[in-house]
Amino acid sequence: MKILVISDTHGRDTLLGRVLSEIGGEPDMLVHCGDIEGHEAFYRKAVRCPVRMVPGNNDYFSNMPREIQFEAGPHRVLLTHGHSYRVSLGLDYLVDEALARGVDVVMFGHTHRPLIEDFGGLMLINPGSLTYPRQENRRPSFIVMDTDENGKTEYNIHYL
After folding, report:
1. Helices marked H in the chain
2. Which of 160, 98, 141 is nearest to 8 (CA)?
3. How buried is residue 2: exposed, middle or buried, by Cβ count under 10 Å (0-12/13-18/19+)?
4. 111, CA 20 to 30 Å: which among 22, 58, 79, 130?
């Protein structure tokens, strides 16, 4: 199962085609970690796979749930934008919530900085931003989560 994880597009969708080319076509699932700014329909129409999305702190009029939990292969995933857990200041609140919910993967955005961190078996992944990256190289980023038929999962940050 190949899951494409993106975030913080802020209404600018021009790079999705490049991302899909980079990963070799359509994923099995597309996950958007928020700050979509009214372009939810674009992502639902751009791919034929299931799409999971949550609103970010700039999605003022969204009626999507603020966070969702779902199954992705053998994983229980919590999807949130992260601002409600103050992820810009640290990951403690987010980790505590994830542990309390019994998930093993948390996907979040907000910081515009990509991150893959194994916190004692809890995977924290932030794809960064496709439009306003804030990490050192300032290149648009996304994550591919790839689970093989044996349940082994790899997480990879990609840069455009």
Report:
1. 16-22, 40-46, 92-101
2. 141
3. middle
4. 22
Q: Is 99 exposed, middle or buried (0-12, 13-18, 19+ CB in 10 A)?
A: middle
pTM of the model as a whole = 0.96
Fold of 2-159: Purple Acid Phosphatase; chain A, domain 2 (3.60.21)
Q: Residue 160 and residue 141: Cα distance in Å, rounded?
A: 6
Contact predicate 140/160, CB 8 Å? yes
Nearest alpha-carbon partner for 84 in 33, 45, 18, 135: 33
